[in-house]
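User: Quick sanity check before I run a bigger batch. Here is a single chain. Can you write out its predicted 3D structure?
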Amino acid sequence: MTESNNDGNSDWCTIESDPGVFTSLIESFGVQNAEVTELWSLDDDSLASLVHPMEGVDDASVHGLIFLFKWQKEGSGAAGSNGSNNNNDDDDDGGNVEAETSTGYSPLTGDDAPPDLFFAHQVVTNACATQAILSVLFNAPRAIPHPDPDDNNSAVDDRSGRHLRLGPLLTSFRAFSRHFPPALLGEAIGSSEEIRNAHNSFGRADDAFLHDPTRRRRRDRREGEEEDVFHFVAFVPHGDDGCLYELDGLKAGPVRVGRFREGGDGDDIHNNHNNNNNDNDDNNSPTETLSNSTYAKETLAWLHLAKTAIQTRLSRYPPAEIKFNLLAVTQDRRTYLSSHLDSLVAMGLEESDPAMLHVREELLAEENKREMWQVENERRRWNYLPFCVELLRSLAGSGKLEELVEGVRGRVREREERRKKLRLDE
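Assistant: Done. Predicted structure follows.
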């Protein structure tokens, strides 16, 4: 596990790549109408289900993808960005390491990079998960900033319920850092106490028992025993040029994956309405000016570009390698379920109508899922080590520990004997 040094910016814990963790982390930033979904397959049906999650909904918002992969050193046959142990980066030189990308294209720097695309170098250890999340949120096509209470024209009409609301924390952060270069933007993320505290709230409580000053030295002596290294990157669509970008904080700049739309005048559904440009003259979101089918078509187009890029990266790993995770940042399912329920009520359907019952069951399932996430997150935060130590002490005091240990050793020996017998039979 990556260890912190004395730099305050390094006091970021490792967090688990899990939809419940990521959704709760996003909500702890003050963001509304966003949910993280795990993708188990890259087949067409799985991608289409993000945009068409249920009957009657054909334009659900998909804000971006977050991909976790096992990083390997250059020349090892795997595509990778420099990362660090347990889902994190252990390189504080954000962007200077040029490992191979999933597309093979070089990062865009300087004037070659889109000026309004949010991209930050990762300069803080263990921050790659949160940085990938921020990359999606700040570049989300349907993201809208928190309304300015002193500006009556800053509110955006969201009657469709499809928009991601950034909230005051991220709106303020983006306004403050809008013109920062990538390296300084990475420093700003690492220095944000609110963002760091939200990230660290999903770490497990530490214990003095785990602080062994000889641990690093013992690990350094074990030649050839390296821990697995993982890293997060984000895939986001960009409206102004109609291209999909891979955002890796350890690269010098964003990597253009491909174009999902011909043209690129920035006048269509992916023209970013979030705080990439807060100087809006009216309250009409650009996403409301085009048909839903256009949004769905373009979303599926960039999802398939991301699919190709991810598959290209996966093809460079051994067939037995399965340590990957793909998450989609989407619209909160409860929003369109509630909207669909309201439409059924407006039609005058009875509560006992099968359509009404089905939607209510779906809503209940979503609420139960959120409750389960909350319980799981509390368990992740809890430090079980004192309980385990006390249990061992009690067993030892009652004289049962040695018996239990011998029982385990016996079962291990039996298992090894069965394996040897199977090898001999082959």
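Residues 1-9, 75-86, 88-100, 265-291 have pLDDT under 50 and may be disordered.

User: Great, the batch can go ahead then.
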